[in-house]
Write a structure and sequence with these properties.
This protein has 80 residues and is an alpha+beta fold. 20% of the residues lie in helices and 26% in strands. The strands form three sheets. It has a three-stranded antiparallel β-sheet. The chain has a two-stranded antiparallel sheet with strand order 1-5. The structure holds zinc ion (ZN).
Length: 80
């Protein structure tokens, strides 16, 4: 089930989840027109995503392996 979570956005490229306020602040600081993922530089975000996973130890995590995540962080499990 996909829920609309208004205050969070997920980067479509790297699946990292950001509070909208954080992206908004970064956008203002850098004087950009669009949100940019601070991690991978992508400008494509989605508001609609499923469960969120916290990856602490990507080398030992089966979920990280499945999602091809190699860094620690908060990631969306599936993106609409
Ligand atoms: Zn990204």
């Amino acid at each position: 089930m996909v829920k609309r979570v208004g205050s969070y956005l997920v980067c479509i490229s790297c699946r990292r989840v950001y509070p909208k306020s954080e992206l908004e602040r970064e956008k203002k600081e850098k004087r950009r027109d669009t949100y940019v993922c601070p991690y991978c530089g992508s400008t494509r975000f989605s508001k609609e995503f499923d469960d969120v996973v916290l990856i602490i130890n990507p080398e030992k995590s089966l979920v990280a392996k499945k999602l091809k995540i190699i860094h620690a962080g908060v990631f969306a499990f599936s993106i609409e």
